[in-house]
Amino acid sequence: MSTKKNVLFATSTVAALALALTACGGSGGSSASGGTWDKDAVVNIGSLYEPQNLDNTAGGGQGVTEALNGNVYEGLFRLTDDGKVDKLLAQDYETSADGLTYTFTLREGVKFHSGKELTSQDVKYSLEKVIADDSQSARKSNLEVIKGVATPDARTVKITLSKKSISFVYNLSYVWIINSQAKNLKTTEDGTGPYALNKWTRGSALSLNRFAGYWGDAAANKQVVFHYYKDATALNNALLTNAIDVVTSEQSPDALEQFKSNGSYEVNDGNSTTKLLLAFNDKAKPFTDVKVRQAVSAAIDDEKLLESVWGGYGKPIGSMVPPTDPWYEDLTDVDAHDVTKAKKLLAEAGYAKGFSFTLDTPNYDPHPTAATFIKSQLAKVGITVEINTITPDEWYTKVYKNHDFSATLQEHVNDRDLVWYGNPDFYWGYDNPQVTQWVEQAEEASSTAEQTELLKKVNRQTAEDAASDWLYLYPQIVVANKKLSGYPVNGLNSQFFAYDIKKKG
């Protein structure tokens, strides 16, 4: 899983929103394609999400995925901006008849930025790094199905699974292939991507230079620089003053009109997989009671919250599944806003006079705003909320690692992350044996149709159990100067591929 700012799985994390000015799944900035573009251009990218560190197995955060995934590091497979899984460092692969053995053939001529040639040992090292005990990687739990990794020769990797995993190839798109000899990966890198790290100045910027030894098509620009800002106002001012060329994810809908009305900019409303959750600790009273969770969910007007934070952008979502996932179903009516129903459920649960709980809230937008809104909504049904504002690092330790909370706000970025409700040990503690069985059966399914049918059951059951309250689906708004083309507009799981960006000279 990935969360914004504080990434549990790097993800560390998008739904079908109507595209305002570009086609769904395509690249933005079509206006620049008609002019002459500068192959040695420097592309300046503005973001609110600076990496915590540069290692996506060590809590690097959303920012490390945004900057390095696909740009500096590559996997055997790549999750494209429109949600497809393509072969990348894997030239080809075969699956055994029983679905337990995968044999991958690596591309020839691939070199790391240090100059070392890619071998099967590097793949083995990278996989083992992801499933290590201390890993915080996005798909660690899903990849623990790996039983063994053999390297018969330099270009062959043979992976044996403990059980069938229909999502195995998809999950491999989350695994960065790293030089097995690399050191200090929190501050340096050694990947195979089209860019190499130039310099990271904490609190300011991270620059990437086009890698001359890249095995594939060269990046369309010479350098990209990710500039980091503390708030949306500073970010937007940088775009207006040409200090940056593009904003990876606009966080201030009130500011959009100044770009829409200016012929120099293009506003792209893409597809997001980022869900804002009110996550209950389902193992802590009173949230052990399904009626209490249902009551809280019914007491909160999700549409009003979305409107107050995002205006006309974003989408109400009644479950963990965004419309771009194959098993999506609109379940917004399951725990729809109904104050009378909420009071009735509380009375049935023995809390007719309400109760009190502490809401642990990350300290960056929109969490404080959402927390205040939730507090006022729940007060109408007699529930008292104490807001405890914490940093991303505190959230990771207190909530995710120690499960020391009653309820929390958090963003989950990844697609296809419904399956975490099948893990009773996950931080929210949801434990429904039937759901766990369905998730396991879905992963061992013989076809995608069978998998989809089972996960639709999981989707509905978790919604009916109010396992969490899925407040809304974020919009994915990319704003760019019209001199740019080729930038991604969806940013699935927070990745932002920079190598196709062209800039007019």
Given as residue ranges, the uncertain stretches (5+ residues, pLDDT < 50) are: 1-26
Main sheet summary = 7 strands, mixed
Strand content: 15-25%
Oligomer: single chain
| Overall pLDDT level | 91
Strand order of the largest sheet: 9-10-11-2-12-19-13
Treating each run of at least 4 consecutive H or I residues as one helix, how many helices?
Answer: 13
Q: What percent of the residues sit in helical stretches (DSSP H or I)?
A: 10-25%
Question: What is the straight-line distance between the termini?
Answer: 39 Å
- Overall strand count: 22
3D shape: globular
Q: Structural class per helix/strand content?
A: alpha+beta
Radius of gyration: 23 Å
Question: Could you name the key traits of this structure?
Answer:
505 residues; alpha+beta; five-stranded mixed beta sheet; 22% strand
Explain what this protein looks like in three dimensions:
The chain is of the alpha+beta class and 505 residues long. It is built from 13 helices and 22 strands. Strands 9-10-11-2-12-19-13 form a 7-stranded mixed beta sheet, covered by helices on one side. Strands 16-15-17-14-18 form a 5-stranded mixed beta sheet. It has a 4-stranded antiparallel beta sheet with strand order 5-6-8-7, with helices on one face. Helix 7 packs antiparallel against helix 9 and helix 12 packs antiparallel against helix 13. The longest helix has 17 residues. 52% of the residues are buried.
